[in-house]
Amino acid sequence: MKILVTVKEVAEAADDFEIEGTDIGEQFLEYDLNEWDDYAVEAAVQLSEEYDDVEVVSATIGPERSEETIRMALAKGVDRAIRVWDDDVAGADLDVAAKTRLFAAVVEEEEPDLVLSGVQAADDGFGATGVSLADEIGFDWAAVVNHLDTDDDLSTAHVHRELEGGIEELTDVDLPAVLTIQTGLNEPRYASLRGIRQAQGKEIAEFGLADLGLDADAVASPIERTAMYEPETESDATYFDGSADEQAAQLADVLRDKGVVSE
Amino acid sequence: MSDVLAVADHRRGELRDVSFEIVRAGRELAADLGGDLHLAVIAGDTEAFADRLSLAGVDAIHVVDDGVEFNHDLYAGATAALFEELSPTAVLMPNSVNGLDYAPAVANRLDLPLVADAVGLAYDGGLEATREMYGSKVETAVGVSEEPFAVTVRGGEWAAVEETADVPVEAFDYEFDESASGARVQGFEEVGAGDVDIADAEFLVSIGRGIEEEENLELIEELAEVTGATLSSSRPIVDNGWLPKNRQVGQSGKQVTPDVYLAIGISGAVQHVAGMKGAETIIAINTDPNAPIFDIADYGIVGDLFDVVPELIEQFS
């Protein structure tokens, strides 16, 4: 069995940042493995530990810098990795459809039995690539999965989908399938020193559009970010100033006034 | 005609709030486009749902009377078929958990550009959607240069339409082969039951990512004890297994309406705010002055919780 995990290096903005053009200035961004994808990686690695002959492959669309993120997944037990990038991809504003075409080409190459993907990326928050990919490649799917069991023969996944308001939907999904993974599904492991050392020796294959049988049309997008701005603050909060003990004293007064704390 | 097709959301026999909100988003967009607003109601008690959704600004309701609950194959298939029948310029779907499970498939199937999780929509010769990025720290304008297009709209961003009207209801015949669907809903489960119901609490002390380490929870537990507060949290604390699910406030946790909600080290992500904005008084302690929690707070302390909380404990000890 082969499990493909789509992973993304996401940018996180510093508390204080400046916008330059239609993005936050590069110097205010820090990069990390997308939190949702970390849970997807863990789910895949756990399945590979539970069953014999499971290979876990991660696929990412990202520049050379993102290899650091991919190494993190490799250090946690992913067997090998694929990175999709070239000048055309770098120059494109990738929308869901473009990412779907790229990952669909990777799926055609790898022929996985199961694809795991984070529910959404922490930076742009579209939350759509996994299900779009499933539809494109003709796999079954389930979105926002926070519990996963599999049949012994790996023919069916028994999942819980986390709905709003503390309700979970219990669903059976036939494999092959794409599952989009919610945080809390498991406890992502830390990469061990041994894992980090081993990751250095694992393969990261690079694919450009031509390698995937695609051309620049595959990443053409009718969606374009035209502006970025800081939302106008709606805050009309009363702020408590002073030292920590002065702030605490003012807060304590409010709590007493509201009658929620009795002494 | 430049019509809009919007899809309602329901669960366990109840229409969800976003169904009434998407009507407003849809009718505003239809007005900009100069077309009609069509509303799709798929599965469940469609007759009762259509009756409730006979709202001002809706030009037609199309009901697909098949199935009881949400099934993404039914929803994706029926929405796509309805789209092909009506040829609208826009299809709006909710950015709910169910929306996440079928809207991307609809866009892919119909080869439509998809803008997900829109918080604003404007049309002036082309769609311009407003979205958030980087954990709500910034807003972006997103232009779409192709038509038709698909959009999922965030719940709580458009005011619900309540004014009723007499809207024609039409049955839309869609052949759904359930046996061909590889995803089968087996049931539902309520999670988070436990000894404490945070929804009943008058005073919640709630903790988020800012607590950093599990052992630091002791500090907050001490605060809850000396103030007689009930302890709750945002999602990451529960994901880490530091508190049980029944303590989680937010979209996927509990909705709470205490007299006072003291948010400590909680940034105020939209999913969290959805669960606690009904609190009478909101107080926030956070090191980041730009944290979205301050936008809805009545009182704020920009400061380090590890300095402020011990002093607060001191006040009540």
TrEMBL record, chain A:
Q: Which UniProt keywords apply?
A: Electron transport, Transport
The UniProt entry, under InterPro entries, shows: ETF_a/b_N, ETF_b, ETF_beta_N, Rossmann-like_a/b/a_fold
GTP-binding listed as a keyword: no
Q: Under which name does UniProt file this protein?
A: Electron transfer flavoprotein subunit beta/FixA family protein
SUPFAM superfamilies on file: Adenine nucleotide alpha hydrolases-like (SSF52402)
Query: Which source organism does the UniProt entry give?
Result: Halobaculum roseum
**One of this protein's Pfam families, by short name?**
ETF
Q: Family, per the entry?
A: Belongs to the ETF beta-subunit/FixA family.
From TrEMBL, chain B:
Highest taxon listed in the record's lineage: Archaea
Every Electron transfer flavoprotein alpha/beta-subunit N-terminal domain range? 4-185
Q: Which Pfam families match?
A: ETF, ETF_alpha
Note the InterPro entries from the entry.
DHS-like_NAD/FAD-binding_dom (IPR029035), ETF_a/b_N (IPR014730), ETF_a/FixB (IPR001308), ETF_alpha_N (IPR033947), ETF_asu_C (IPR014731), Rossmann-like_a/b/a_fold (IPR014729)
Q: Does the keyword Flavoprotein apply?
A: yes
What protein family is recorded?
Answer: Belongs to the ETF alpha-subunit/FixB family.
The protein's name is: Electron transfer flavoprotein subunit alpha/FixB family protein
